[in-house]
Amino acid sequence: MSKLTKEIIDLINGSESIKILATADEEGNPCTAFKDSLTVLDDGNLAFGEEFEGSQTNVNLVRSIWFNKSVELTVRDRRGTTFQIKGKPYRYVHAGPLFKKFYFAEREKRGADSELAGVWIITPEEVRNETYEIRKKEEDERHPFFRHFDRASVRKVK
Amino acid sequence: MNEDNHELGFEELAAKYPDFPRLLIRKLDAELRGVALTERALERAKEEGCLYDAAADLGQETPRPVLGGALFRDGSWVLGMEPMYLQFPNGYKRSGSLYTIDVVDGKLWLLDGDNPVEEVFFVSYPEYFGKKTSRGTPMVKVVSARLPGLLFVYLYNRCDFWAEQKPCKYCSFPTRVFRRKPGYTQEGLDDLYETMNEALKEEGKWMNIVLLAGSNLSGNSPYDNEVDEYVKVLTTLRKSFGTEKVYAKMVASAFSREQLLRLKEAGATTYQPHIEVWDEKLFEWICPGKTKYFGRQYWIDSALSAVEIFGRGYVCTQFVGGVELMQPYGFKTIDEALESTLEGAEFFASHGVGPIAIIHRLEKGTVFYAQKQKPAPLEYYVRLMKGISEIHRKYNLSVDFNNYRCHPTGDLDRLHNAAREGA
């Protein structure tokens, strides 16, 4: 059963959405990268192209698939609707139909000397709605004493 | 090997070396033990367009299935490194029982006994397979492949060391299926040109080419005719690529500086004269042909001088990991064997030559197979691959033309690709 609702799938597939991947190296140092090609596969997994074999992101993803570590994707549209998706790398594809689909798209986008090292497939494990209004409501309910007194919901300002 | 040594199995080694990826231990174990496909898996391979029948190319009526290859989840090899037609696990002396690939709940799995241990994925065979050149030569006989992305050009599979009955003791070179004598004719080069052009039509497929030949001592100076053959092939590849440089890996004999300069002039970008085994006495025993023509130091010097010509990181030398444990002259423990081989690897790395290693497979047709030698244990290979990768890292040395997609050494280097600077 996919963790992704239709709203999230539409958000990911939206051409104007911003898509960011966060990984960590051996010492826990963070690394973020834009992943414009992020898409949802028919089986509910996520896929994106990795341009460079030697990128820090790719190295971190290899470490993650070998040692069962999580990565996180953040997706946001122009209205501010934002989701964070935590998942595990399931597969690195550098041959076959899925790879070729991404490969040809990359060449279409960037031209004849562009490169695509492979396609990462991520299995989503946890999804959080990080849209501001949603998070504010959650926080206000959980932590009512972490609100400044200037806020309209706490004090009526004359 | 000392018979008292307890050989650790997969789980024991995974616990002992937690910083070594389990998946890569599995890969090494699968290569040592061998992998067979069940009927269900073969049927799946056919359905997915991953099983090629080479019978017609060979002029045979009996089916000669060739699997396009199989990959683990991380993109490294399960099957595919073996030369074509040897992908199925006969013809080798193996350690332990075979792994199998089978269909489980609709997916392909590598099984250890009845236990699915890793999901695997087949790779389709290249689109140029089954096609012929305008002279009617099956293209697969001109250029073969190690899949999914390596084109393989056997210049010829004659080796003068075999002719002199001084073969390297692990080598089965003359038994390769497509026999070709030295001496490319113009027709042969035309076939090569046509085949390369056809193969390259498949976009998103190829990333490596290997050129390989046996040692050829003939010519005005020893190895001159071997160099001539490489020059012919490089010149043809230059025509196919339309470039001055050819990004191919060239596995060859120990050439002189003058011969190496000729190759560079012809477009070569890399060079690999293989040392095979580091210990001096074992080199003489295991590689009598290389010892006679013209000794261990000559092969070392050739690799070192090539760095001045091709650059740091563009020259490799290979160790056949495990041959230094063959008896009666080999090391008695894996500690001694690794100390020697890693000393050699470090020596080369310190001079800018990338050390790489393969698993010694006891293959039918080799001297060691006939001698009923025993394969080195799995732990040896775990430590060897770890040790060599650490040396690459220590010397900030790339072996990218032998990366994980076409050579077993490169797997662990994937963890420090981003750390390297320059080469």
Describe this structure in words.
The complex is a heterodimer of chains A (158) and B (423). Chain A has a single domain (6-131), classed as Pnp Oxidase, Chain A. Chain A is 28% helix and 31% strand. Chain A has four helices and seven strands, in the order αββββαββαβα. Chain A has helices spanning 6-13, 56-67, 97-110, 132-142, and strands at residues 18-24, 30-34, 39-40, 46-50, 71-76, 82-93, 118-129. Chain A has a seven-stranded antiparallel beta sheet with strand order 2-1-5-6-7-4-3. Chain A starts with 5 loop residues before the first helix and ends in a 16-residue tail after the last helix. The relative contact order of chain A is 0.17. By secondary structure, chain B is an alpha/beta fold. Chain B has two domains: 34-122, no CATH class; 149-415, TIM Barrel. Chain B is 35% helix and 17% strand. Chain B has 15 helices and 17 strands. Chain B has helices at 10-16, 22-33, 39-47, 55-58, 139-142, 160-163, 186-200, 224-241, 257-265, 280-286, 288-292, 296-310, 334-350, 367-370, 378-394, and strands spanning 35-37, 51-53, 65-67, 70-72, 77-79, 92-93, 99-104, 107-112, 115-122, 144-146, 150-156, 208-213, 249-252, 272-273, 316-321, 354-359, 362-363. In chain B, the strands form five sheets. Chain B has a six-stranded mixed beta sheet with strand order 1-7-8-9-4-5. In chain B, strands 10-11-12-13-14 form a five-stranded mixed beta sheet. In chain B, a hairpin with a 3-residue loop joins β10 and β11 (150-156). In chain B, α8 runs parallel beside α9 (257-265) and α13 (334-350) packs parallel to α15 (378-394). The longest helix of chain B is centred in the middle third of the chain and has 18 residues, at 224-241. Chain B is globular. The interface between A and B is medium-sized, with 26 and 27 residues.
